[in-house]
Write a structure and sequence with these properties.
This protein is mostly helical. The protein has one domain. The longest helix is centred in the first third of the chain and has 24 residues.
Amino acid sequence: MTNSTISSHSESSQDHAIWLNLQKVISQSSGFKRWQQEQTIANEESLDVLVRRYLEETLETLAY
């Protein structure tokens, strides 16, 4: 029987690694770069925040 704490931690680590890879790929895309140029972005915003904003706005646009 697998310990749920260990399994949960492992899945969490895998999820985090996947998210970091997605951030990297998205931030290198032409769509993200174009979006970034159109935005007023504070210097303190992390890549994580920027990618999340980009994805939210993209999904909102697609929803219409």
